[in-house]
Write a structure and sequence with these properties.
The protein is mainly α. The chain is built from 4 helices and no strands.
Amino acid sequence: MAETLSDVLRRVIAKQIQADPATVDEGAALDDLGVTSLDLVEIIMTIEDEYNVDIPVDSVEAWKRYKTVDDLIELGRSLGLEGRRRGA
């Protein structure tokens, strides 16, 4: 079974914060998970690498805009990543 966008993003976030992906709830606030602004930049860069896309956002804008796991999932959906093969 292919990973969903939600699965991929939860895995990416968990790897960045060194946690079990099962503990990354979709509704969780990133700062409650211990995600820092630097972590968020790394997460966005990993998403770009995983899906071969460019996310035109700087670190300050990202920290202001993306506050929850759901926000990152919605970002992925807005970029058309849902159902898209990683690395394509």
